Automatic annotation (TrEMBL):
This is Glutamyl-Q tRNA(Asp) synthetase. Keywords: Aminoacyl-tRNA synthetase, ATP-binding, Ligase, Metal-binding, Nucleotide-binding, Protein biosynthesis, Zinc. It is an enzyme of class 6 (ligase). Catalyzes the tRNA-independent activation of glutamate in presence of ATP and the subsequent transfer of glutamate onto a tRNA(Asp). Glutamate is transferred on the 2-amino-5-(4,5-dihydroxy-2-cyclopenten-1-yl) moiety of the queuosine in the wobble position of the QUC anticodon. It comes from Variovorax defluvii. ATP binds at residue 250. A motif ('HIGH' region) lies at residues 10-20.
């Protein structure tokens, strides 16, 4: 029988803030609500070395410990797992589902603009397929997943999946995203490939994360299928919004949570619990508050063993 396994996978580009603590607490509760055999893992997603800050991964682990959110195994670091991603990419190449691309973002934007499509901030650049038939002597800048080719073999272009909170979701990845990047030419692995490979390698069965990542799910399911990996169960939590109405993030100045004292850590956890629809705790310390939320989570989201 498969062991129920969840994970929290922060990027060490800054300390935990209110929004990331919501995801951490939700993923921890979802695992604990499945019984004592379930596992909660922490993975530091530090493949984008340009944005990651030295020592920040360790700081995040310390913040989680202050909140009594302790993983059941030693945390792993994506920057040390490149060999796994390389094997997955080679497998996709062998299946003719990955190809080199020489296009820059500027070139893609110019091609899309010629077709009357302007890139919106935060939106997807739907790759126009320039390099599908070859580089024609140009230097590759990235490897892309051949979404168009993979989806052409399916009976339905629209990929459907069910989110445990949001219900039925669907996306035509070829039309709405295009052939997405798996690895940049300068080395970093793309989030989509790394997360799929890591989840499978670590035995993850359930992904609980913020609703801002809903649009990534269809791409990840496509990669899971292409690599012959299990499809996971997904739950996307409500977002914490900033003063500007946008998702609270490090990019828009989200303040780090204060975990320097048990009282401060508990206050941060109570704020996260409120976002998740859980009752406030009157406990004195985080470790005493967490058990009281497990049954409330079970009633709300009915996690399966």
């Amino acid at each position: 029988m498969t062991t129920p396994t969840g994970r929290f996978a922060p990027s060490p580009t800054g300390p935990l803030h209110a929004g990331s603590l919501v995801a951490a607490l939700a993923s921890w509760l979802d695992v604990r609500a499945r019984g004592p055999q379930a596992r909660w893992l922490v993975r530091i997603e530090d493949t984008d070395t340009e944005r990651c800050l030295p020592g920040m991964g360790e700081h995040i682990l310390s913040q989680l410990a202050d909140c009594a959110l302790l993983p059941d195994a030693t945390p792993v670091w994506q920057s040390r797992r490149g060999a796994l991603y390389a094997r997955a990419l080679e497998h996709l190449k062998a299946l003719h589902l990955a190809y080199p691309c020489a296009c820059s973002r500027k070139e893609i934007d110019e091609l899309l603009a010629e077709r009357g499509v302007l890139h919106q901030r935060g939106g997807e650049r739907v790759y126009p397929g320039t390099c599908r038939e070859g580089l024609h002597g140009r230097t590759p800048r990235a490897w892309r997943f051949a979404t168009e080719q993979y989806e052409a073999a399916r009976t339905s272009r629209r990929l459907c999946w069910t989110d445990r909170r949001l219900g039925c979701q669907y996306q035509d990845v070829a039309h709405e995203v295009g052939d997405f990047v798996l690895q940049r030419a300068d080395g970093p692995w793309a989030y989509q490939l790394a997360v799929v490979v890591d989840d499978a390698d670590q035995g993850v069965t359930d992904v609980v994360r913020g609703a801002d990542l809903v649009d990534n799910t269809a791409r990840q399911i496509l990669l899971q299928r292409a690599l012959g990996l299990p499809t996971l169960r997904y739950l996307h939590t409500p977002l914490v919004l900033g003063a500007d109405g946008e998702k609270l993030s490090k990019q828009n100045g989200a303040a780090p949570i204060d975990t320097r004292t048990p009282a401060a850590a508990l206050a941060a956890l109570n704020a996260a619990a409120r976002v998740l629809g859980l009752p406030l705790s009157q406990a004195a310390r985080p470790a005493e508050a967490l058990p009281g939320w497990i049954e409330a989570w079970r009633a709300l989201y009915n996690p399966r063993p």
